[in-house]
Amino acid sequence: MVIFAAATAGYVYLVSLIIDAATTLDGGDSLSQTKRYAAIILPVILGLTFAAGLGGYIQRILTNSIALNTVGKMQTQMLRAAHARDFADSQAEPTGELIAKFTNDVTVVSGGLVRVLGNLIKDVLTVIFTVGAMLYLNWQLSLFMVVFGFALWPIIEISKRLRGNAREVQEHIGHMTAELKESLGAAQLVKTYGLESREQARLDHSFSERIRLYLKLITQQARVDPILEVVGGLVIAAVVIFGVWQYGSGTATGGQIAGVLMGLLALAPRLRALGTLNNVVQESLSSVGRIFEVIDTQPTLEDAIIASDLSVSDGRVELRNVSFTYPDGTLALRGFNLIAEPGQTTALVGPSGGGKSTVMHLIPRLYDVTEGAVLIDGQDVKEVTQASLRRHIAVVSQDAVLFNDTIAANIALGDLDADRDAIILAAKAADAHDFIARLPDGYDTVLGEDGSGLSGGQKQRLSIARAILRDAPILLLDEATSALDTESEAKVQAALERLSEGRTTLVIAHRLETIRNADKICVVDSGRVVETGTDAELRGRAGIYAGLNQKI
């Protein structure tokens, strides 16, 4: 940048020398003098050009490298913070808005860094070097540069509005990304219900709002250039008028006047760039603020200062007088008591909204209880490390989560150190090996997004294979068969029974036939366990469970 700025200032001084040299040529030896000046000036011009080009080339590579590495670190920190934040925060913010921060906001910051690192420093250095050369040539003419100071006040006023406008744009892009993800992810619903026109109208409104907000931002940004153009024109006019007067009075040479004008012409785009750079800075600061909202988020569910690893001998799970209220104030559990014995299956049934899923969230400490305690083999889950707690728990939920990776890699998520033989054994135990073997690439078949191409039962059996590979003593089954057809349900149910052997199993089920053989059934209603017993015992009572059976 210094090389580039010095070369630009060199042009100003060189123009002055050339003009003055040209005006001193006399008729007799003008040709020889021209040759002599050409022999001196041409190498200088070529040298300045080469220096400016080389400096600009190296500067562009280095500034882009710094900017890309900086935003790369930002994305890494954002991802760590997003993974570390509380489960409640993850549920509260739409995924599309978070993705927009990883993509659009990071792109804005990257572009801003390139402009700031490259243009700001380079242009400021160019202004300093060029003004220095102008002052050296003719300080009286160069003093008219102070007129540019009058442009600062309106530019500062504009910048105050710019950041707010930029934040509006970035926030709307987040909303729009969330809406797009939601709409495109619901392709089946949109097509079968004929909702194409409705979705297009909804998204068209969002696109139109984006255009409106961008035009509002651009309107503010566009005010800077005219201000600088007018001020620049006034400065050049003043220099020309005063320069002609100085030349006429013999206090300035033509080369000095030409050099100062050359300096002004060289400075004009730099000063305009510095003015418009403020727009970029304000937009970037808005995006930086949104990025650091993610990075600076501190999880409230942290390990205790002195937290030990969970030691599991039997895997007995107890919820002792537990009450829990969600962040939005919804009371989910109150005075909830439950014991799940080792090697047994404990089923939770009851009306929707009774608190069953909340129990499944509290055991792996996705939330902290408001009152009471969750105990595993007598150890409070709040007093052990979260990593060791979750290492002893396997989860199979209604929605089988699969990544766009190979089948083997998806199963291996249960144990990242597992070898191929262990993965195959887990697949066989989950009754998944046969359909995997029929796929073109077997275990190396790459699944599409969310396991596209597989049936619901096949996805669920891969999820079970993952849980089998994890070999955890505590198993949580959250409506693992509720979305399956009868044939798939039978296969998945058989795999789940094999998986449950010898483990402490808690299962949520809406289909009562899937938990007939459970060792204990707990009926949950209004945040409490209101009935407990086996299927036969509860059928014999005139309670909620008996009523649920009558509805089947």
TrEMBL record:
It is found in: Cell membrane. This is Multidrug ABC transporter permease. InterPro entries: AAA+_ATPase, ABC1_TM_dom, ABC1_TM_sf, ABC_transporter-like_ATP-bd, ABC_transporter-like_CS, P-loop_NTPase, Type_1_exporter. The chain crosses the membrane at residues 6-25, 37-58, 124-153, 226-245. Residues 1-283 form the ABC transmembrane type-1 domain. Its main location: membrane. One of its GO terms (cellular component) is plasma membrane. Residues 317-551 form the ABC transporter domain. PANTHER family: ATP-BINDING CASSETTE SUB-FAMILY B MEMBER 10, MITOCHONDRIAL, ATP-DEPENDENT PERMEASE MDL1, MITOCHONDRIAL. PROSITE patterns: ABC_TM1F (PS50929), ABC_TRANSPORTER_1 (PS00211), ABC_TRANSPORTER_2 (PS50893). GO terms for molecular function: ABC-type oligopeptide transporter activity; ATP binding; ATP hydrolysis activity. Keywords: ATP-binding, Membrane, Nucleotide-binding, Transmembrane, Transmembrane helix, Transport. It is a multi-pass membrane protein. Pfam families: ABC_membrane, ABC_tran. SMART domains: AAA.
